Every structure is written in C-alpha cells, then in structure tokens.
Automatic annotation (TrEMBL):
SUPFAM superfamilies named in the record: Nucleoside hydrolase
BP GO annotations: purine nucleoside catabolic process
Record protein name field: Inosine/uridine-preferring nucleoside hydrolase domain-containing protein
InterPro entries: Inosine/uridine_hydrolase_dom, IUNH, Ribo_hydro-like
Keywords recorded for this protein, A-Z: Glycosidase, Hydrolase
Keyword Hydrolase: yes
Origin species: Sphingomonas psychrotolerans
GO molecular function terms attached to this record: purine nucleosidase activity
Domain Inosine/uridine-preferring nucleoside hydrolase: 21-293
Amino acid sequence: MAEVPPASVAVDSMMPLVFIHDAAIDDFVATLLIEAMPQFDLKGVIIANADCVPQPGIEVASRVNQFMGKPDLPLGLSKARGWNPFPWPYRDDCIRLGAIPILAPFQPNVPTPPPSGDDLLAEMLAAAIETGTPLTILLTTGFTPLTEVLSARPELAQGIGQIAWMGGALEVKGNLDPATTDPAVANPHAEWNVFWDPFAADEALASLSEIAVFPLDITDTAAVTPALMATLQAQGAEHSFSQFAYEAYGLVSDEPFYDMWNVTSTVWLDAPELYSAPRRTPLQVVQWGFEQGWLQSAPTSGRPAHNVYLSFADQPGFYDYVTTRLARSA
C-alpha cells in the first residue's frame, strides 16, 4: 500500500486537540493516528496514573513523540487519583512497550518530577477561550483528569468543543476480570475506565454536554485480528508507523480479550461515517455497592443526553482506515 501523503490543510484551520490517556499500548497507536489526521492539531498529551506505571508511561510518551518527529510536543502528568486501582498485570504494558525495537533509538526527555498535566490542560482550555477555537478532548481513561481541572476552574468548560470518550458497557458484559480483580468487587457490568473513578464519571456525564461515548459494546468488535497484524507487518517494511503498530500490538496480539478500545474512539474523530447512528441518551453511573461503576441509561429529566456509539456501520472500513492511515513514516 502506498504511503498516504499529508493533506494540504492550513495550520490556522486545524482543530486543536488534547489527548488524555493512561499510556496503554492502544493509546500510542491512537497517537500515531491523530498525527496522521490532517484536520487536527495535537496540542498536548496528558498521562493519567491509571492503566500504567506513571513514570515509564510518560517516558514512553516522550519517546513516541520523538519517533513521530515532534520532540517538543507538550507532555504532562495528571495528579488525578482513581478510586479502584487498575491491576498491576495490566499496568506494566507501558514498560513492555518501551522495549520494542523501533523505540530503541530514542531516549526520554521528561524532567523529574514531570510537568503538571493539570496546568497543561488548564492552559489549553484558557487558550481555546481566548482564541475562540474550541478544544477537542480525546479521553481514553477515567474522567478524573478533566473533572478535577474543571472543579478548580469551572469557567474553563467554555473552552471545550467535542469530547470523545472510551468507557462503560451498556448491553454487553463489563471487563472486571475476577482473575485479576478481587471477586468481592468484580461485578459483571463495570468497565475499567468507569470503575477506576465512578464518581468522576457520573459527575462528568451529569454536567458536560454531548459527549461521544464509545463503550465496550462497540470496542468488543474491534479486535486486534490476524489480518490486521499481517497488513501492518507487510506495510512495516516500508512505513515506520505501521512497523510501530505491528511491534506494539505484537505484545498483546495473543491475548484474546485485547481490543482496539482507544483506537475506536480516535478514528471516529476523523471518520464518523464508519459508525452506526448513536443512541442519544442521558447516562448515569452506579457509585456504591457491588455494582459500582455500572454505566446505565438515566431518566430523561435532569441530565444532558449523550451520543453513545454501539456499533460500526462499516467494520471493514474501520480496519481499512487504520491500516491506510498508518501507511506512513515519521
């Protein structure tokens, strides 16, 4: 497949975007896809101490930025704290990612302690208000890094444009595995990005308008397939973005539960036509008891409605989009 040339888009017409994630393998493939989107200007990356080990996580983010040719892309570490910590067997994926061959030439340039992700987000939202250019927020972790900043400075919500969030499970099972999570709390309905901080998730869904939500209902159909891996491997001989994705997903491709959770919400930003029409509904989160973290449709009064994307309209097109956008080099 031929490399996709960068589109000719004027810098001042690009939409500013901040990516808030927790340094999972899929997050870094999503980062490469954002870099390949001509209409978005990635202004910064904020790491949450959730599904990662924070120092190695932000160091890998620094190395990925250098790999992309953007060594000065702002990075920050959120001070957000979750309620239910992710299992350690999940969190070391960022450490394993740091050992893939394609990242070997790059060394992290993150100071100790890392820059504040809270300050970075506040600065970007303030700039969005000042310039009249709303900030797109791609959020593939819990809501806490966003809600804490808005709690301290509520006026900054005026700078938010669209929010795309991966989280929850509506009509499918959650992903709390009793093998890695204590069975006393591993209820069958919760998804980790909600379970990590159910209070922040409920607060955001009650107070922020028109969030595009991508629950497990849709991400369960976005597996890291052998066909995807074969295409990435073939393209990797010529295109470094494909080689990165092949090496990254190679760490987890034999894990049947691993899906492209965060890539699913990312692709929607650029290709919404690949997704079935959303279900528009208010949402709430169970905050206490055994069902803590269960995302549910809420009564229609008192809460804003959100767009919940439950399926693809063109699933083959989704995979084709990913491989086509990754047919490029830094």
